[in-house]
Design goal:
about 20% helix, 7 helices, globular, about 35% strand, 3 domains, Immunoglobulin-like, four-stranded antiparallel sheet, Rossmann fold
Length: about 350
């Protein structure tokens, strides 16, 4: 293949949901991201909170339409042969802004060019173009093979379901004795678009139901024997789940732990890969330029939760050391680091 070509690929990705420092909810979204030469295209957009049109929570017919458009088997949704590459994770309105590009055939090849930030039906490339991105030339056969894996398969009732490589939905089982905390956590998970159920014992849950979960969160009151019994039940059911040991009865921290557990993307496709909190500083490791927020949560002597934003800024690739406010992390405290794609949690270690 000529050196001018780029490889095209798709990989599961997510926009991490959660409870933000000021109390607002951020919706969880699962989607398929575009890989160009093995790297997420979204990584070239350092401070963009967006998802591709290939999201798991869109109706199958709409999902299929998005795939057909990318295959150039359906008309472009915007003037000038422009297609939405990334859009708002909260809605589908162009007014919120979207990354668009011209997608066209050149012989048997497919070319993505003229990337731009677009908020109206037409776009001014001189003012809103991403001049450092593209154009990308893809081998037509390889391009089609990747996208066609997402096309729906017919089902008995005449409807459709996403193909085997389409992003899957998320559901979490919460196991614990503190009903009030679990109820709040379940409500928060549902508010950001993740299904959640609460139980004190998985013995009463059928194997079929167990296979529907993607993560299991244990409350701190659950013993090691009870945790082992739950793991055995999921293993017998053939369920592929991630296990979360809750750090504290703090809903935003538990939510962040669960979001991290739900992230099945390869480490090379994550922006935020390391977090420590000790000796008065946070250690943050990122793989590409991105915006990172750090929020400290601490429990006082009456077990009340206090939250304080420590940092909000764009970091370059590499390891960074960020000073922590001693008052924000005294006693039992935890640090949550968040990018648009993933989230990490670390307990604050006091020496």
């Amino acid at each position: 293949m000529s050196a001018e070509y780029a490889t095209f690929g798709l990989a599961p990705a997510m926009r991490a949901g959660g409870v933000l420092a000021h109390g607002d909810y951020q919706v969880h979204r699962d989607f398929m991201d575009f890989l160009v030469d093995g790297r997420p295209l979204l990584f070239q957009l350092s401070d963009l909170d967006a998802v591709s049109p290939l999201a798991s929570d869109v109706p199958p017919a709409i999902f299929t339409t998005h795939v057909r458009r990318l295959l150039l088997e359906a008309d472009a949704p915007l003037a000038g042969g422009r297609y939405v590459i990334y859009g708002c994770p909260e809605c589908e309105s162009l007014e919120c802004g979207a990354v668009t590009a011209v997608i066209e055939r050149d012989g048997t090849d497919i070319v993505w060019r003229d990337f731009a930030w677009q908020t109206y039906e037409t776009v001014d490339l001189a003012r809103s173009g991403y001049h450092g991105i593209g154009p990308f030339r893809f081998d037509g056969d390889q391009y089609r093979q990747e996208l066609e894996r997402l096309l729906p398969a017919a089902v008995a009732d005449g409807g459709a379901r996403p193909g085997p490589d389409a992003p899957a939905g998320r559901r979490v089982l919460l196991i614990g004795a503190r009903v009030a905390v679990l109820a709040k956590l379940a409500a928060a998970l549902r508010a950001i678009g993740i299904g959640a159920d609460v139980t004190a014992d998985v013995a009463q849950v059928s194997p079929e139901e167990l296979r529907g979960y993607r993560a299991v969160a244990f409350g701190r009151a659950i013993t090691e024997d009870e945790r082992a019994a739950a793991r055995q039940a999921f293993t017998r059911a053939g369920a592929d789940v991630a296990y979360v040991d809750g750090l504290a009865p703090v809903v935003p921290v538990l939510l962040a732990q669960i979001e991290h557990a739900l992230d099945r993307s390869a480490p090379a496709q994550r922006r935020l890969v390391g977090l420590t909190a000790a000796d008065g500083a946070a250690g943050v490791d990122v793989t590409s330029t991105c915006r990172v927020t750090l929020v400290a949560y601490r429990l006082d002597r009456l077990y009340r939760t206090h939250a304080q934003e420590i940092f909000d800024g764009v970091l370059e690739p590499g390891e960074h050391r960020i000073a922590l406010d001693a008052r924000a992390v005294k006693g039992q405290s935890f640090l949550v680091a968040r990018t648009t794609g993933n989230v990490l949690v670390a307990p604050v270690v006091h020496h």
